[in-house]
Amino acid sequence: MKIKVCGITSIEQLQSLQDLGIDYAGMIFYPPSKRYAGVKLVDQQPLIKNTVIPKVGVFVNAEMEMVKQTIVDYGLTAVQLHGDETDEFCLDLMDQVEVIKVFRIADQVNIDELVTPFQEVCHYYMFDTDTKMYGGSGKQFNWNVLQQAAINKPFFLSGGIGLEDVDKVKAFQHPYFYAIDINSRFETEPGVKDINRVALFVKELNA
Question: What structural domains and CATH numbers belong to the chain?
């Protein structure tokens, strides 16, 4: 199982995640987000590009030109498209980076209807809790709905996962369950991760 830590806003924390062996580090390029990385990291682009850890840029209904320029500026490995991006938008990026398409899960949502248009135009799905702020709410959706859907692509599980959820994550079984995405439940303040808490989560998850 892979681990992605999202909402990184400093080069020091990016390097700490790399030292921990975290699989993906997420940086949010959505200005309304409390974890917006654009201003805080703009002067650190050369250092960020030189970090080995795979870097994921998170975007919400951004312009294609902006997304592509950010990929170059920060040396992104993948983009996480968290808004209402079309299948054509996703397809246009697949040759440049890995594409993670996010689906916001609310009660009674039909997951098959959500994912079908994107089956051939992304590398991974991500399932997150439906909120007004496109993630970072600390709230979980009912993971059982994923068992009832015809998902046949590797996916990230996101939304309110905390240290107390280690056993729940271990117990969750799905043939395409690829990674978990953690964020707000591991923070001392928005955009600042408690690295010791992340390290403990990794240790207990691998125990």
Answer: 2-206 (3.20.20.70)
